[in-house]
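Ligand-bound model needed. zinc ion.
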Amino acid sequence: MQVRNKMIEFKSECPNCESQNFSFEASTVNRSNVANGRLSGHDIEPVMILGCLDCSETVKVFPASEIAEFLNQKVLKNSKV
Ligand SMILES: [Zn+2]
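Prediction:
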């Protein structure tokens, strides 16, 4: 089964152990060819990693921009400013 909404999509069961016990973790990745230690800020991309809490399998890695766009639609759409 897939979990879907307008912006993010992922399998609802861990591909390794079929658990549904997931958690997000914030991290960064180097998307450039620059060696670690010579990186500057624009070489690093923030990501949100969806991982299985039972076996530590990485279920999916989302660019932080996708999560931000999702939150903008879900949270700001419902806010009454
Ligand atoms: Zn698992």
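The chain has a mean pLDDT of 87.
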